[in-house]
Design brief:
By secondary structure, this protein is α/β, with parallel strands linked by helices. It contains ten helices and nine strands. A hairpin with a 5-residue loop joins strand 5 and strand 6. Helix 4 packs antiparallel against helix 5. The two termini are 34 Å apart. 31% of the residues are buried.
């Protein structure tokens, strides 16, 4: 387990303290703290661990290190393939978490900004830490941990006096996700259809693959219909017909455009 916690501004003063309290419970085997929480050191350490704990800051497509640069983003997300990631940061579950999920990573985090009030920060710390404690100390399932964390935030909403504490607790609860068999939400209608048909595998299907498949299907339908009409008119199939020449030329052009893909596929088949 790799624990990573920058500390370079007011917000990370708190998140760093929360991480230290969490570390006392779950005992990470290696830590990248403060000035060590940077991309170069993360790239060396992460491959040696199956679990990542990251506390503050994040953006939609990155986890931010102590120097303000990303330690994990869309360019090196492979580092968490087939691993478990527990984050306490803003936004990263929206894009980065989804990309990690596509690579068989279990991702815990928030799709929107994580907020808290200074007066009740100990309550937010308890809610932020509870999932990791029950997962890595008591070996609870991810589903159980998610339910516990959301219940903890709900408890804050029900009992807090400060209205802003209630607001932030509700926001944190509602944007907390755990991608562990739970398919991430998407606003894309086509992606929703693909996910409905193929489940989790739908996240791995690229749009150019879908487009190529549909092209070949519609191309085949058009060719079949043309061939049938030629046969009805002439009683035989003549490949010198202008329509056939057009179909063959179109297919050659499409294959030429896809030559890099075909070469890559042939190389993969050869290696097997």
């Amino acid at each position: 387990m790799l624990g990573t916690a920058p500390k370079f501004d007011d917000a990370t003063q708190y998140s760093f303290k929360w991480y230290q309290e969490l570390a006392k419970e779950i005992h990470p085997t290696e830590e990248l703290l403060e000035s060590n929480a940077v991309r170069s050191k993360f790239a060396v350490s992460m491959p040696n661990h199956g679990i990542l704990i990251f506390y503050d800051h994040g953006d939609e497509d990155r986890l931010i290190g102590n120097d303000g640069n990303p330690i994990l983003d869309l360019n090196n997300v492979e580092l968490v393939s087939n691993k478990e990631v527990y984050t306490m940061c803003c936004l990263a579950a929206k894009k980065l978490g989804v990309e990690a999920y596509k690579k068989n990573c279990i991702w815990w985090g928030y799709t929107e900004v994580f907020g808290f009030t200074v007066e009740d920060e100990h309550l937010f710390m308890e809610a932020a830490n509870i999932g990791a404690i029950y997962r890595f100390k008591y070996n609870s399932s991810w589903k159980e941990c998610l339910e516990l964390a959301k219940e903890k935030f709900t408890g804050i909403i029900d009992t807090a006096i400060d209205p802003w504490t209630k607001v932030w607790a509700r926001s944190n609860r509602d944007c907390l996700v755990c991608y562990n068999g739970e398919v991430p939400n998407t606003s894309c209608v086509l992606r929703k259809i693909v996910l409905k048909l193929f489940g989790k595998l739908g996240w791995k299907i690229k749009w150019n693959t879908v487009a190529d498949t549909l092209f070949l299907i519609f191309y085949g339908i058009a060719l079949h219909d043309y061939s049938h009409q030629v046969y009805q008119l002439k009683g035989y199939h003549n490949l010198i017909e202008g329509g056939y020449i057009g179909f063959i030329g179109g297919l050659i052009c499409w294959l030429y455009n896809k030559k890099a893909f075909i070469k890559s596929l042939c190389n993969k088949l050869r290696r097997k």
